Amino acid sequence: MFILRLILGSVFVLHGSQKVLGLFGGQGLSGFAGFVHDKLGMPTFLGYLAALCEFVGGGMVLLGVATEVGALLIVPVMLVAVFKVHWAHGYFGQNNGFEYPLNLLLVCLALLIGGPGKLALWDPFRKRRKA
Fold first, then answer.
1. CA 5: distance to chain centroid?
2. If 0-12 CB within 10 Å is exposed, 13-18 middle and 19+ buried, where does residue 119 land?
3. Among 54, 69, 72, 76, CA closest to 10
4. What is the pLDDT of residues 30-76, one digit of tens each?
5. Where are the domains of the chain?
6. pTM of this prediction?
7. CA distances, 123 to each of 4, 44, 56, 109, 114 (Å)
8. Calpha distance 55→15 (Å, rounded)
9. Which residues pair with 65 in a beta bridge?
10. CA-CA distance, 100 to 56, in Å (whole number)?
């Protein structure tokens, strides 16, 4: 779980920083919110919310701070990515298909079920998990 957490958290901190901060060739917050509105036909505020969920949720997962909450923030973003962005392109990633976001969604679900693993900074669900 620790390895899955590090990988998933890194992916979403990096992708989220493209959307929130405009780093690594990203379009920044207003650019991503515009994409969500113009290309997906969804309200602009959902673009802002999705970008923040990726960035903050990814950070929470990476650091092991309420990992399940961080993963839960990412789940709806990946559901939209699978069904609204990539579904029409089929399964395979080389065709811009839903293979990659589906796998990220499944890792989120694994962390929701299994918890953060070792070296989590804050695991508020630990007592319930050990019982």
1. 12
2. exposed
3. 54
4. 999 999 999 999 999 999 999 999 999 999 999 999 999 999 999 99
5. 2-118
6. 0.93
7. 16, 33, 16, 17, 12
8. 7
9. 122
10. 20
